[in-house]
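Recap from last week: sequence in, structure out.
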Amino acid sequence: MRMVLSIALSLFLVGQIFAGTGVAGEGSVLHKDVAQDYYKKGQYDDAVNEYKQWLKKNPFDPEAFLELGQSYVAKGLYKEAVEEYKQALKFYPDYPEAHLKCADAYFALRQRAARLVGPQSGRKATPPRQSGRTQPWLRPTTSWQ
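Predicted structure tokens:
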């Protein structure tokens, strides 16, 4: 009886692994590979869908959040990308690549906002100061004499 249960359990686990939903997370590897192929081909909508499937199988994988964020960046959806990077940082706060990509996405958001608020909106751009003096924040704070 014990041997029959052992064989049945082994067959079940092997079946789960080959079905792609098993203990080893093989299904998530498949979604990751497919998503990366879509990303390389420039099919970002399909890549986003595959990365989301990957996250359903591995909800704590920071790489999945990063790559989903990269797909959003490629689509120009910086706000969504920031949210994905924040998710990666929520689970792994010391992940330097997530901090870098999040900062890049925030910078892109700011650049986009600056372009939208430019001169066409009626707001005048202030020209830089033309005096020969240095700006107060560029002057040394201590004397070296």
